[in-house]
Amino acid sequence: MINDHEKKLGDALVAAKVLTPKQLTDAVQEASKKNSPSLVVVLLEAGHLSFKVFEKFLLGSAGIKAAIIGPKRARPDVLALIPKEV
C-alpha cells in the first residue's frame, strides 16, 4: 500500500511531466499489492523512471540546479581549469 508521501511524490512527477497519468496509475496499482516495493522502486523497475531523471527531479524540487551528464570524458583543457583543491 502506498502512503501519502508516495502519492504526493507521484502527483508531483506527473505535474513535472516526468510521468504520464497512466504510468502513475499503473505503478500505484502495482505498489499497492501486498509485499510490493515502494512506488519509486516500481517506477524504476517498470522503466517509467530512471535513477538519473529521478535524481534531477529531486534536486530541482529542492532548488538545486543539476545536469545529466553522459558517459563522455571531459577534455583535458577543460579539466585544467578546475582548481586542484576541488
Give a summary of the structure in a few sentences:
With 86 residues, the chain is an all-alpha fold.
Average pLDDT metric: 88
Shape: elongated
Distance between the termini: 44 Å
- Can you give the helix content as a percent range? 40-55%
Number of strands: 0
SS summary, helix count: 5
What structural class do you assign from the helix and strand content? mainly alpha
Write down the domain tally: 1
Describe the largest sheet: none
Task: Report low-confidence residues grouped into runs of 5 or more.
Answer: none
Strand content bin: under 5%
Structure, explained:
The structure is a single chain. The chain has five helices and no strands. Helix 2 (21-31) packs across helix 3 (39-46). The model has no long low-confidence stretch (mean pLDDT 88). 14% of the residues are buried. With 86 residues, the chain is mostly helical. It has helices spanning 4-15, 21-31, 39-46, 51-61, 76-79. It has one domain. Helix content is 53%, strand content 0%.
What's the layout of helices and strands?
Elements: H1 4-15, H2 21-31, H3 39-46, H4 51-61, H5 76-79
Search tags:
86 residues; mainly alpha; 5 helices; 0% strand; elongated
